[in-house]
Structure formats: structure tokens, C-alpha cells
Amino acid sequence: MDGFKYKDGRLYAEDISIQSIIDKVGTPAYIYCKNTFLDHLKKIQQAYSEIDTTICYSVKACGNINILRHLAQMGSGFDIVSGGELFRVQQAGGDMSKVVYAGVGKTDAEIKNALDARIGYFNIESEAELENLIKIAKEKNTTAKAALRVNPDVDPKTHTFITTGKKESKFGVDIERAQKVFADYADNGSVKLCALHVHLGSGGNTIDPYVEALEKTANLVEKLRENGHTIEAVDLGGGYGADYETGYSPSAKEYAVGIVPIIKKLDVKLILEPGKSIAANAGILATQVQYIKKGGTKEFAIVDAGMNDLLRPPLYDAFHFIWPAKVEKNFVPEKRTKDLDISGCTKYDVVGPICEGSDFFAKNRLLPPLKRGDLLCIFTAGAYGHTMGSNYNARPMLPEILVDGDKFQVIRRRQTYEDLVAPEQI
Ligand SMILES: *Cc1c(COP(=O)(O)O)cnc(C)c1O
């Protein structure tokens, strides 16, 4: 469920029509529903309410400081993967004790800043990183808590680029090696190694891989405790399904049914790092059809957004439902699925203006007949949309609009050409 709905053939974000927002801010633009973000967070909080749970929203999914502030005010912590994301959470006024920091290549400067900020847990990806963290904490005469990221060798059956929990991936350490890491490093006086972290990757649409990974992790917790180590928390990472196609992914509650009993028995704190299950369907990318072009047997709808604005289709071969912001009654979509076969639809390739063959949003997609000037909406673009944007082809980064009921706020203005060259010198 999200805040985007058709009323009388016009798409609304909560109580404002997309067209009326675009009339003021222009295209392309990201439009988010504030209450969809907050509803998703609330549902996760409720699903896990019977155990001690910290939800650490993954900043890299959608990191606008305005949105982070709203989530922080509702009690969310944050999962960060860089010094820049730490800065964003600080700007948003986030609670540092609820910040977890993952990433295989943390630099000394990033580690120092995170130590100074007194974040909750460093999620450690290798022995070398842990050694370095201990060294820096000693030099600064400070302490920190760390979770060891273990690799449970579970396949969430998703795209290989977003699979991170398999043995051959670069993340974490093998579950067999974890015991040795605790034996070698747990007792160091500066960094308290007292938690485990697992992150399977993104895109899993069943709960089974999570339960399997958690069971393996639970076994490890018991073994570590037998060896005298204290394990106070298990961080189960993110990657929970998001509704790219309506009704396709499990709800927070369904995940919780599998996860909560295991955590209860273990008697540990649970940390979750949801990203796209909170952000994905909270946002759309609105774009205008510039030209309709026939090429051989194909018909192209060339739009004013490009792969620099939304990279997921070329990068992950990701599906995004696309539909016009205004349609005749018979074209109102009941579901956001791949081949909505409504009579009168035409097949289009929806492509951007960039000089790359990979600059596409959809291929052979059935859509109502389009014409120059039509406003198209690319759905479920809230996660890994704006955050993966770039200035490629010297295209300014897009504005971000946050809708709350019948009001909207520009929470990031459109970049100008002056912004583009501002850091450069002649
Ligand atoms: C990206 C990432 C997440 C969030 O993943 P989603 O698929 O957006 O839920 C959580 N934890 C870590 C360590 C990540 O790298």
C-alpha cells in the first residue's frame, strides 16, 4: 500500500494531483509521500513490538535529510555505509546511538568521525578492518561497540549484483571463521565485539532465506556463548521485499512471524536495516514524453528523465511500473504488473535522452497511446532512485518533493547549471 492513487483518471500523491505539483516544479522530478514512509516504519515497529528491536533505516535507499528527520522523530535509527551518510544523519538530528555502520572499505577518517559521533555499532567486515578500528580507538583513547558481519552462505535468489550473503561475495567473514575472529580479537579493551551482523542483499521476496540465515546465526551465537563471549545483539540487515508489483512481496508482519521466535529464544536485541521496503513505493519519478518515434517495428517514447536520474533498469534489469498521470477511465490500472493487458494499449520502449544504449526504463511495455507532452510516472522509484543519480551528460540532479496530505514541500531544489560547475576552476 502507498499514497499514489488514481482518482477520476488522474494520479494523486496523497491528496494532491501529480499534475498540479509538476505545474509548479517542472519535470523530471521525484515525488514522495511522507505518510507512506512513516506507515512502513510504523508497520515494522508494530510487527516486532514484542521484542527489543532497533530499526535502522538504510540511508543509501533514499537519504534526503528532510525524510531522515521525519523517520528519526518516529524513533528510527540509521544504517550508514559512508562518512557522507553519517553527516546526513547528523544534519537530520538522528540519534547516534541508533546508528550502525557497514562497509568493506571504511577509511581512517571515516572511522575517526564515527568514533567521535559515538555511533551504536561498527559492522565489521574483516579482521584487517577490526584491527584498524581497535588501533584508532586506542589512539583516540575511546571505546566502541562492534558487530561482526558473517556470511551465512544463503542465496536470496535475486540478481547477482545485489546478492551479498553468499560465500563468494566480498562482504563479511565466513561463519566458520567467525569463531576464530572472536577468539583472536574479542578481548582487546577498546572495541567491544558483542554482536553479529548478517545482510543477505536486496530483493528477496520470500522469508525463507532470512529464517535460514538467522538459524545459522543463532547456532553461531550459542557456540560463541559457550566459549565465553557476550553476544547482546543480532543485526539481520535489510533487503526485505518491496512492492515493485502490487501484492508481490511479504509484509513486515510475515517476516516477523519467522524471525521473532528465534530472536526471543536467543534473548538478544534485534537490529533491522530496512531500506527499500520503507522507501521504494513511497516515491515516483515524474517525467514528460518529449517525442514519439518509430524505429523499424518498434515505437519509442522518449522522455526527459534518463538513466542518470534512475539507474535501476539498466543496472539491475529492474522492473518499474510506468503509467501516464492522466488517463481515460478504461485505462485506470488496477494493478502495477508487467503486462497489464488493457484493450487499446500499444507497446513502447520508454527511453531517456542519453547517448547510451542502456538508457531505458522499459522495453516492449504495453501503455495507453502516448503523445508528445504527456506526463508519465515511473512508480516505486523512492529507493535507489535519487541516491544513485549522477550528473552524467551534464544533467542537473532532480528536485525531490515531499507530499503530506494536501500540501507539498520542495525538500531538494533542482540543481542549476551554475551548481554543476561550482566546484570547478578555470
Ligand atoms: C543496502 C543495505 C541495506 C538495505 O537494503 P534494502 O534492500 O534497501 O532493504 C541494509 N544493510 C546493509 C548493510 C546494506 O548495505
TrEMBL record:
**Chemical reaction(s) catalysed:** meso-2,6-diaminopimelate + H(+) = L-lysine + CO2
| Subunit structure, interactors included | Homodimer.
Matching entries from Pfam families are given as: Orn_Arg_deC_N
Q: Is Lyase a UniProt keyword of this protein?
A: yes
- InterPro entries (UniProt xref): Ala_racemase/Decarboxylase_C, DAP_deCOOHase_LysA, De-COase2_CS, De-COase2_N, Orn/DAP/Arg_de-COase, PLP-binding_barrel
Residue intervals of the Orn/DAP/Arg decarboxylase 2 N-terminal domain: 39-280
Is Endoplasmic reticulum set as a keyword in this record? no
Cofactor(s) for this UniProt protein: pyridoxal 5'-phosphate
Biological-process GO terms, alphabetical: lysine biosynthetic process via diaminopimelate
Active site: residue positions: C355 (proton donor)
Give me the residues that bind substrate, please: R312, Y316, E356, Y384
| Residues involved in pyridoxal 5'-phosphate binding | G239, Y384
- Give the protein's biological function: Specifically catalyzes the decarboxylation of meso-diaminopimelate (meso-DAP) to L-lysine.
The protein depicted here goes by the name: Diaminopimelate decarboxylase
Species whose genome carries this gene:
Limihaloglobus sulfuriphilus
Q: Which residues carry this modification: N6-(pyridoxal phosphate)lysine?
A: K60
Similarity section: Belongs to the Orn/Lys/Arg decarboxylase class-II family. LysA subfamily.
Query: Which GO MF term does the entry hold, naming one?
Result: pyridoxal phosphate binding
